[in-house]
Write a structure and sequence with these properties.
By secondary structure, this protein is an alpha/beta fold. The protein contains 7 helices and 10 strands.
Length: about 220
């Protein structure tokens, strides 16, 4: 998700973009592929969410309520989880454009839906009653992480952005403290790629098995 939206944004700004995907095409998508596809963003409640949703994604909207999720509440949730250690400027950068980012992704073909089926069975709510959906996790990509990756890779391909598959990055090329390129294995062959800007979107602790083992115990790769 992070890599593909960065690629789309850079392309919109006029950059010539290359995406290096470590996995082969049939396994593409990284950690996002296995996620639930739920997005947390600031919004003004259900009426504010409706323009983002597909017709199918909004089919239970008349059976639920969604309170507004103000920027202050969003920031408070981050502060609680991070125990007050987050950078205030980064929090502002994340939160202030978050609704517009959802709309921008929608404009690139990402389909959004209300998160209801994992919380309750809407069809079993008695007539005249509604269910309150948590406002911080009310919207997800249709078909979760797999659907998100499907939509974003389609968007990248429509824009003509080149993607090299089976191309894990092995090393950063540095000039002083500046990264000017990377070394990658492309289908097993070493290649260098140099660029004005390099964006790393590598899954953080969700990616390397040794970090997962140190953080949460034995895991598969």
């Amino acid at each position: 998700n992070a890599a593909l939206v960065a690629a789309l944004s850079a392309h919109e700004q006029g950059a010539r973009v290359l995406v290096l995907e470590a996995a082969p095409r049939e396994q593409r998508g990284g950690n996002s592929r296995f996620s639930g596809g739920i997005f947390r963003f600031a919004h003004g409640g259900l009426d504010h969410l409706r323009p983002l949703l597909t017709e199918e994604g909004a089919k239970w909207a008349d059976r639920v309520t969604v309170a507004s999720y103000e920027p202050q509440r969003f920031a408070g949730d981050i502060d609680l989880v991070c125990q007050g250690r987050s950078d205030p400027d980064l929090i502002t950068t994340l939160i202030d454009p978050s609704y517009d980012t959802m709309a921008w992704m929608q404009g690139h073909g990402v389909r959004w839906e209300l998160v209801v089926d994992k919380l309750f069975d809407p069809a079993k709510i008695p007539a005249g009653e509604t269910y309150a959906v948590p406002p911080g996790g009310a919207v997800r990509a249709t078909n979760e992480g797999i659907g998100l990756m499907y939509d974003l890779f389609n968007a990248v391909e429509r824009e003509g952005i080149e993607v090299r598959y089976d191309a894990p990055v092995q090393e950063l090329l540095l000039e002083g403290s500046r990264c000017v390129g990377v070394k990658a294995l492309v289908k097993g062959q070493p290649q260098e790629f140099r660029a004005k800007e390099i964006i790393l979107s590598c899954g953080a602790i969700h990616s390397p098995a040794h970090l997962l083992r140190s953080g949460i115990g034995p895991v598969g790769h």
